[in-house]
Amino acid sequence: MLITSTQELSLRPRAKGVAGSNPVDFSGLLRRKLLAMTQGFPIACIPLILLKLGAMSLEQELTADGSITYFNSDFGESYHSKHGAYREALEKHVQACKIPELVAKQNELKILDFCFGLGYNSAVAIAEALKVNPEIKIEIIALENDREILEKITQIDSVDFSGLVEKPILETENYRLELLLDDARLSIDKLDNNYFDAIFFDPFSPKVCPELWQPELIAEVVAKARPGAHISTYSNSRVAKDGFSQAGCKLHEGPKCGRRNGGVLALK
User: Fold this and answer.
1) pTM exceeding 0.70
2) Please, which residues bridge with residue 180 across strands?
3) Burial class (CB in 10 A: 0-12, 13-18, 19+), 101
4) Structural domain that includes position 46
């Protein structure tokens, strides 16, 4: 296979996770370090060892609510909480961002799904919105750059976004979902400010993916939200609190969803 861009090497600070007990894939960790070091370099400058390390390892996991997630060996984290992938999407993002309340009083809804992963957050948002307002028109912009995890969507019964990799725009009578398959730090610049009614902010944890929790990037994300919009995340880390606070948000504690503490829920 002829590699023509860094995207084909699967740069992947992407979706959310919770630390797991699975063994860490050290080749994956090495690949991440090398990719970070070569970010922005021409493909010819990238060490040959990257081409020999191969694809990441994804191990399917069954969560407590019966929904499926995956463990990513590169990051040593799962994409969702062991308490439930579907439950987490519903409570920590959809309900936290007050999607049912929004669609009860408006007929259009714009969502930014930052680190789309397996698509649970967007899928649950659509389902819950339609329960309240069958006439709702939803626009979702999804940021993701891991093609491999997107291909696992076909294994998820509650997520009907099959074919998204081949056709990055899915459109039905009620929703339009556009996937920007690229580094989220680049894709965010393509979006309008003060545009989204809700933002699901769902990278891997700050511990393993600090590049997506930098205060400058969080400020860019907040800028895309409309005044009064909620921005949800599962993390209650100091990095998350400081980032959203410095971006001018009012901070609340989100739903606990089986944990001791809820994540940051930011209000612009």
Assistant:
1) yes
2) 143
3) exposed
4) 6-78
Asked whether residue 1 is domain-assigned, the answer is no
**Predicted pLDDT of residue 164:** 85
Domain CATH number, residue 89: 3.40.50.150
Give the residue carrying structure tokens 């040959």: 48
How confident is the model over 23-42, as pLDDT tens digits? 444 444 545 554 444 444 44
What is the C-alpha to C-alpha distance for residues 160 and 157, in angstroms, rounded to an integer? Answer: 7
Q: Does 19 have pLDDT greater than 80?
A: no
Q: Do 95 and 127 touch, CB atoms closer than 8 A?
A: no
Q: What is the pLDDT of residues 111-156, one digit of tens each?
A: 999 999 999 999 999 999 999 999 999 999 999 989 999 989 888 8
Total of domains in the chain: 2
180 and 147 in a common domain: yes
- Say if residue 221 is exposed, middle or buried (CB neighbours under 10 Å; 0-12, 13-18, 19+): buried
75: confidence class by pLDDT, cuts 50, 70, 90:
confident
